[in-house]
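Before we proceed, please read the two lines closing this message. Tell me what the token row says about the fold.
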Amino acid sequence: MPFAKTLTGPGRKADTLGVRKTKGREAAPSRPIVVKRLLAFCLKHKSRIDMKAILGKKMMMSQVFRDDGTVWPVTKVAAGPCVITQVKTKEKDGVAAVQIGFASSRNLAKPQLGHLKGLAPMRFLRDIQPEKIGENITRGAIITVKTFAPGDMVEVIGTSKGKGFAGVVKRHHFAGGPASHGHKDNLRAPGAIGAGGVQRVFKGVRMAGRMGGERVTIKNLEVVAIDAEKNELLLKGAVPGAFGSLLIIKGPGELQVEVAPQAETAPEAASAEEVVSAAPEQTVPPSV
């Protein structure tokens, strides 16, 4: 069974689970077992790519005229600067990741303030998992839009706009019922939902309900331009979310960070004894 041999190491017997045996020979494993083994093999040998990421806020849409005269729709994103708040290790935290923070906040509880001790209070904290965590990636380092370059292909993760409670025509694109020939008040009705003998509704039946407000990932978006002074990214096309919503922008490449500027320490106040000793002596004139 060649497929089973590829999934086993040296000196280990092949797993014959799911193999149909016949007289004198072994038949190929059943299809579900093959799919299961192939999935396990892919997950075992899965390797992460080097990844760079930044957090941003969706601003507005615009358009950019290219050199050849074409017009590209773009989305302006206020990205960064993000601060590395924690470097997680597999031995201590169970996962090798980098936690980054974005957007200042004045309403944080004491546990969050303790976690961000020595750093500015931040509203959003998210984890990214690059393949390699270099020595320059330390707590307090800053990630800016300079980590990306025009032409990079990225994926954007955001929360879609909430639409509230919607019907089946808007939510699932149902065609609706006929509008004439004796039909009344059922133009946008859902219609039948299946058999009634089971006395329950099957899971996954498309019905009316809350629409939007879900995590959405848009892949293969191109970085059109970067404005390092304003901390802005121009991404080709549309991204999920409303104005001002949080976006996670990720792409292949090395994560570049900048060292945080050290704050100047104020000079220590002189003690009272030093002030007295440094003061000039005053002579008191004799009384008349």
